[in-house]
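Worked example

This section walks through a single chain of length 210. The input is the sequence exactly as stored; nothing has been trimmed or padded.
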Amino acid sequence: MMKEKERLRALVADDDPSMRMTVRHLLEKWNFEVREANDGWAAWRAFGEEDFPQLVILDWEMPGLEGLEICRRIRSTFGEEGIHVILLTMKSGTGSCVRGLEAGADDYIVKPFEVEEFRARVFSGERILRMREALAGKIRDLEGTLADIRTKGGMISSCSCCGKVRSESGGWENLEDYLTRRTGVLFSHTVCPDCYPTTKELEPSPEGGK
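Given that input, the structure is written out below as tokens.
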């Protein structure tokens, strides 16, 4: 049975109560955990909490801080990963879109919007967030493996005959299996240029070896 995905945290920041209610209803219907902000300062305060939002639906024009300024603050504080920002605005045209993306938004949608388009953009953002989360987990696992190796003096016990390595439990396993289990890295197999001539020599001749 597949493990249920953890709900992503979303923030709807808009000074229009009707728009907030509409967007919140849609996000909750799509299984997001939603909070609201009715002005720019309230939106920015949400990022001072430990469980800060991961998906942000951000109005461009709000009292206090405008959406572009919040985008800039998010990127300067959190960088590029972990938060996906969809800028929601009545400003259309290429120039406005470019300004929004340059400020740090990941996506841009003009209101009033079609629900299907909004849904597509929200779920695109969710896929990106989950891929980043999975990649970050792989990196943490790899760093943990490297740290474990360093605590052992930077050495892994390896059999000089078969090349197997000693695991934490004291057993022996293939190096590929060891790295896959510890880091999730998968290996594909091919033949490097140095070994290719050797493999050609091992192939049977067309005459059946006569």
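What to look for: The chain has two domains: 9-133, 156-210.
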